[in-house]
Recover the amino acids of this structure.
């Protein structure tokens, strides 16, 4: 299972490359990966009564979040759907994406689709509830990306956002429920939680019931059950392969899978029955009725899918062996016929340019093979013998008829299923008639008449699944032992266990099926009373989209009012509130809490005292100065002083980093302040300034008091005393600070560099009005040639386009000579940082300062000459490398983001030790470099361009002696 996840992950990484190189044909090669995985699942199929196949990999043991995988009978069935239909969909993509206009987005789409297969497979084989939740949320994110494929369309953006918000909201509720169950039962493994709940039903407390309800909220939101049904029809804005896979065979089945997994332990709860059975049967009826009102073929199938999901929820959530068998039969049948029908709609849309049944007539006369494929799938959906859907429908009616659920649930649910099945028969007929019917016309409509031919490859996928619907129906007896494994293991044995078969004789379910078919035919008639009722009556599901919009508007209004009441837009007021809180809360704690006797002895060297006095003087001077630049420089003294103190007390790595950060901060301040007036205005009255001064003194005094109290409260030996030993033992490095960053608290560092990336993106987005991406501007070849021919000497290519009055020949020569040396030092810091002062952060800052030097000497064009890369790509590559460092440690059998050392001998170099944390540190290095590059592009080059009266397109000659400012 781990190998499958790894292979699918590598296929995800390779997909953009191969699709970008070979186009849509590359989908055929990508399909081989899930197909091979499907073969493996079939060869190791779990056997009822035997222990399930398990694999485990430590991830975050402290949080009980490990990659515990377990292939059960239920997981194997879901894996067949995820991998098998996934492979078919990839083959279908090779015929679907033939339009040249779609090739630009196709590589990314391919990666997202294969990634979805990977996370969906991980979801159905995860035994760890927290790991399953991670996969669960990844399906929501990838669904958002796939549904929003046509991002230029407002409908696609709205549908993607809607699906993400609804499913993520349910996922958050589910996470709380998972934590409740995990803490109550002392385990986060599904297998152990379910076993303990089944063995001791009395252990199910109120808290457990609440947890189960929260998990069910996540399940019904993912499976589009009322009241969360509305996102799925909206998601039909996605390309048809996405609908055929996510919304027929994969994503929407995740909630069904979760309910089926938990049903043996919790199906007897009243809250469970209300949510699963009540909302399930309601969804089946209302969505089936809504499907009869649609004219878009895809929306007919979408509401039909919602209806079928309601039925599946009832069957797998009934809590009985026979109902579960019927549910699994319908689950697999639905995946086959619904994926087929979605692909058929995609072919129709692709060849005719429309999905509107009012614009389609006599398509069946022109495309007989396509009509036969659609007829087989629709017949299976309607439950017509001998299709597989008929076997599932018969099993559902028979098992519900003899269910042992409390009265009157069986008769109510059976009645609801009959009504919903009749509606299913009706919209199946409507679909076939709307897509392929003649509709009383003597000639095809324009869309049909002008349609282009269908390639065999395009038709192969739906034809294969349609044939499987027929074969599975005929061979349903042989499938019984495959599908009954999980119900037999999960539930107590039934007195009369049900077995799948195409023919059970003349029974009451067969009579009900006959009535369902007859009723469906009547309802589907265009001139029947039901048709007039459909046209006249309002939508019985209500307008959920309006409710969704009203909810979002309400949230916006509420947040706006809260912001208005708490954030007045006054920076002094906001800062004053924060600082006043900083003073009062510690004061109350110290006043009413226990206090240790403070130790007021001070042991400090004369150098430390001198630096401290200088820092205090600089801070006071900064308050009095009005010149902005002078203020920044004086504030910088406090930063550099802090670095000196670090060095005095034996923290060279901290001192180095402090110096580099302070220098870069000064540069950023200068870049911003040059666009502001030199003098800051005097604001506030004299009493206001006095109040601010008193508040500042109070904050400083409170920080001092808290520091003294904290020092006095220490009774144990500082943990820092053991850090150097532990850093080398677990992180294989002598630089304790660097090991802390890339190993001991690597998760924190990963979050911080993610914030850095977001900050860089935000700054650039505020400055760049149109397009935020791209590298810094470069000197054109013509301009460079002209500069070479100009009199004088040009040390930097970018300076050729600068005004001579703003050039400094000394600075250009210094930059030209110092830049390589600084970059070498930067690389040294990076490689040496694990055992000496430095590291990825310090190395990245050093490289950033080298870029700053080039910018100051050569202007905005020199940034592109120094590093002709897109800052966004540098940032993204850095974050990717940091994530890869996590995967490498996992592959080595260590916890995520921990260090693994490899020692070997190389010629010339001798003994070499490489730590996997180096990959993570490389990501930090690139993110810092990308951040500096982005800041120079936005606050430097971009503001230079907007501030210049006209962009210079030709180099200016360098005049003798005109270089210095």
């Amino acid at each position: 299972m781990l190998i499958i996840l790894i292979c699918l992950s590598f296929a995800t990484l390779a997909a953009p490359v191969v699709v970008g190189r070979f186009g849509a044909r590359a989908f055929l090669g990508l399909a081989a990966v899930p197909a091979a995985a499907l073969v493996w699942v079939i060869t190791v199929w779990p056997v009822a009564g035997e222990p399930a196949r398990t694999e485990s990999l430590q991830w975050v043991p402290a949080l009980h979040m490990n990659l515990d995988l377990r292939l059960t009978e239920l997981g194997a069935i879901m894996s067949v759907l995820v991998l098998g239909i996934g492979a078919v969909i990839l083959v279908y993509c090779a015929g679907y994406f033939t339009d040249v206009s779609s090739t630009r987005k196709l590589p990314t789409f391919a990666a997202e689709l294969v990634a979805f297969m990977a996370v969906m497979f991980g979801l159905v084989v995860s035994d760890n509830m927290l790991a399953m939740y991670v996969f669960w949320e990844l399906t929501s994110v990838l669904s958002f990306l796939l549904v929003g494929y046509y991002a230029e369309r407002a409908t696609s953006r709205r549908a993607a956002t809607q699906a993400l918000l609804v499913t993520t909201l349910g996922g958050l509720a589910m996470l709380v429920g998972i934590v409740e169950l995990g803490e109550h039962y002392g385990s986060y493994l599904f297998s152990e939680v379910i076993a303990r709940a089944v063995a001791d039903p009395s252990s199910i407390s109120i808290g457990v019931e609440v947890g189960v309800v929260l998990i069910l909220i996540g399940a019904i939101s993912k499976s589009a059950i009322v009241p969360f049904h509305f996102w799925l029809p909206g998601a039909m804005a996605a390309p048809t392969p996405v609908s055929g896979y996510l919304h027929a065979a994969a994503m929407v089945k995740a909630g069904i899978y979760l309910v089926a997994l938990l049903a043996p332990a919790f199906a007897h709860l009243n809250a469970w029955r209300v949510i699963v059975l009540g909302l399930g049967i309601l969804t089946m009826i209302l969505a089936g009725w809504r499907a009869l009102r649609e004219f878009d073929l895809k929306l007919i199938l979408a509401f039909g899918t919602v209806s079928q999901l309601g039925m599946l929820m009832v069957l797998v959530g009934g809590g009985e062996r026979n109902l579960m068998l019927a549910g699994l039969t319908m689950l697999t049948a639905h995946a086959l016929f619904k994926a087929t029908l979605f692909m058929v709609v995609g072919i129709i849309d692709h060849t005719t340019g429309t999905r509107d049944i009012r614009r389609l007539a006599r398509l069946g006369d022109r495309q007989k093979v396509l009509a036969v494929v659609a007829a087989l799938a629709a017949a299976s959906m309607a439950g017509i013998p001998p299709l597989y859907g008929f076997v599932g429908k018969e099993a559902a009616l028979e098992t519900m008829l003899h269910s042992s659920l409390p009265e009157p649930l069986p008769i109510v649910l059976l009645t609801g299923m009959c009504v919903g099945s009749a509606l299913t028969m009706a919209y199946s007929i409507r679909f076939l008639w709307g897509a392929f019917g003649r509709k009383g016309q003597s000639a095809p409509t324009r869309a049909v008449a002008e349609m282009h031919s269908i390639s065999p490859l395009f038709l192969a996928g739906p034809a294969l699944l349609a044939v499987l619907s027929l074969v599975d129906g005929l061979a349903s007896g042989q499938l019984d032992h495959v599908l009954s494994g999980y119900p037999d293991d999960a539930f107590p044995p039934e007195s009369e266990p049900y077995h799948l078969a195409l023919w059970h004789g003349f029974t009451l379910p067969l009579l009900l099926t006959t009535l369902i078919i007859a009723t469906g035919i009547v309802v589907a008639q265009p001139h029947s009373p039901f048709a007039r009722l459909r046209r006249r009556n309002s939508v019985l599901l209500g307008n959920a989209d309006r409710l969704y919009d009203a909810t979002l508007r309400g949230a916006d209004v509420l947040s706006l009012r809260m912001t208005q009441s708490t954030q007045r837009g006054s920076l002094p007021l906001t800062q004053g509130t924060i600082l006043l809180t900083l003073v009062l809360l510690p004061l109350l704690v110290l006043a009413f809490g226990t206090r240790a006797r403070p130790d007021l002895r001070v042991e400090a060297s004369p150098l430390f005292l001198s630096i401290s006095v200088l820092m205090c003087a600089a801070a006071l001077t900064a308050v009095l100065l009005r010149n902005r630049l002078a203020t920044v420089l004086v504030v910088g003294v406090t930063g550099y002083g802090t670095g000196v103190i670090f060095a005095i007390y034996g923290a060279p790595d901290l001192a180095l980093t402090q110096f580099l950060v302070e220098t870069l901060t000064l540069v950023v301040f200068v870049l911003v302040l040059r666009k502001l007036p030199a003098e800051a205005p005097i604001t506030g009255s004299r009493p206001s300034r006095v109040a601010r001064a008193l508040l500042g003194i109070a904050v400083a005094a409170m920080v001092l008091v808290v520091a003294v109290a904290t020092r006095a409260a220490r009774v144990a030996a500082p943990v820092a005393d053991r850090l150097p030993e532990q850093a080398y033992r677990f992180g294989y490095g002598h630089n304790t600070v660097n090991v802390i960053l890339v190993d001991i608290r690597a998760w924190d560092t990963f979050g911080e560099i993610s914030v850095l990336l977001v900050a860089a993106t935000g700054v650039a987005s505020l400055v760049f009005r149109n397009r935020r991406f791209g590298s810094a501007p470069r000197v054109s070849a013509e301009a460079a040639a002209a500069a070479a021919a100009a009199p004088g000497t040009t040390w930097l290519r970018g300076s050729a386009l600068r005004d001579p009055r703003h050039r400094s020949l000394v600075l250009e020569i210094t930059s030209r000579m110092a830049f390589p040396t600084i970059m070498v030092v930067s690389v040294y810091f990076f490689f040496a940082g694990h055992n000496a002062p430095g590291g990825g952060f310090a190395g990245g800052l050093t490289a950033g300062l080298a870029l700053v030097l080039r910018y100051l000497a050569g202007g905005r064009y020199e940034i592109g000459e120094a590093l002709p890369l897109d800052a966004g790509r540098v940032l993204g590559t850095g974050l990717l490398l940091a994530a890869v460092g996590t995967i490498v440690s996992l592959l080595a059998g260590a916890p995520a983001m921990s260090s693994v050392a490899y020692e070997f001998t190389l010629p010339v170099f001798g003994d070499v030790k490489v730590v996997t944390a180096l990959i993570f540190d490389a990501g930090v290095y690139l993110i810092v470099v990308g951040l500096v590059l982005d800041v120079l592009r936005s606050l430097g080059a971009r503001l230079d361009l907007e501030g210049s009266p006209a962009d210079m397109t030709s180099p200016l000659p360098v005049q003798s002696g005109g270089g210095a400012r």
